[in-house]
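Design a sequence for this backbone.
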């Protein structure tokens, strides 16, 4: 099988973000892809998708005609347990995991068709504000369905625990406060939130990367989740990044957004607020410019006031 070249943006991010490990991954890709395609009896059905960050994603057709997608991640803490989550979902609201290679972490996935992202899906006849509400309702209903008790399985990595993330964030915020005195109050608030959220009494598979581009149209179900980044956490965790992202980009925000997300997830409103604020503080701590810190600080205040 001839190798379809890795998209330039994916290659560059792998090299920029991971250095030698990224170069090793890029260099090994042709042999990895050829070996897996042969093992799973599949042939390319188009060019690699270009929208990923550090994943090679190639549409394939299996010998029996099944349309599929080969996904080879440059693995890190966030994406390593994606197959674990997809196995647990078993196609209920998410693309099916068809095959998994523990050695490379690569997956053969159901190809969702037509695969239009919820963020781009049009709802003819609805005004902009109503379109936004419809998108939030669809997304939150799906996130609520997907939260479930984890089932350990051999060869599948355990997702990170929210308790460990909280500990790491608190340490990170303390260290960052010495370098970013202009947001020291925000970072101190982040430490307080880490402590306040450490008492969750219900743990399941949550997702740290919930957003409207990771929900796509399909035939088997109207909407399917792709690209989960699982964390063992409470239900309210699912609202953290999702609410931050929507508050940042609009069109809805404030009280309406907070209530819509909490009610849609079936989670405690104040804990959803706290996770969203904490997620925002994490963005502030890692912001690359004063302009970004200012924008994220505005998001933090809006969520706090909502």
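Sequence:
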């Amino acid at each position: 099988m001839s190798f379809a070249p890795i998209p330039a943006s994916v290659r560059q991010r792998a090299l920029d973000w991971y250095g030698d490990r990224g170069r090793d991954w890029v260099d090994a890709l042709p042999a990895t892809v050829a070996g897996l395609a042969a093992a799973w009896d599949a042939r390319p059905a188009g060019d690699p998708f270009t929208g990923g960050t550090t994943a090679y994603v190639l549409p394939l057709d299996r010998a029996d005609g099944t349309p599929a997608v080969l996904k080879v991640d440059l693995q890190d803490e966030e994406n390593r347990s994606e197959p674990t989550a997809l196995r647990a979902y078993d196609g209920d609201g998410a693309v099916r995991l068809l095959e998994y290679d523990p050695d490379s972490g690569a997956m053969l996935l159901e190809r969702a068709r037509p695969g239009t992202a919820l963020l781009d899906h049009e709802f003819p006849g609805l005004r902009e504000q109503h379109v936004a509400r419809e998108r939030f309702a669809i997304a939150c209903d799906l996130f609520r369905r997907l939260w479930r008790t984890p089932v350990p399985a051999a060869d599948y990595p355990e997702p990170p625990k929210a308790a460990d993330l909280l500990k790491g964030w608190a340490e990170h915020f303390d260290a960052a406060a010495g370098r970013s005195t202009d947001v020291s109050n925000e970072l101190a608030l982040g430490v307080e939130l880490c402590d306040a959220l450490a008492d969750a009494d219900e743990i399941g598979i949550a997702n740290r990367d919930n957003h409207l581009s990771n929900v796509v149209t399909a035939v088997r179900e109207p909407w399917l989740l792709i690209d989960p980044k699982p964390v063992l956490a409470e239900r309210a965790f699912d609202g953290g990044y999702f609410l931050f992202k929507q508050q940042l980009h609009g069109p809805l925000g404030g009280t309406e957004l907070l209530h819509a997300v909490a009610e849609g997830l079936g989670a405690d409103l104040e804990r959803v607020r706290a996770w969203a604020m904490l997620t925002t503080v994490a963005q502030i701590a890692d912001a690359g410019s004063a302009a970004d810190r200012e924008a994220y600080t505005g998001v933090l205040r809006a969520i706090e006031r909502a």
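The chain has a mean pLDDT of 94.
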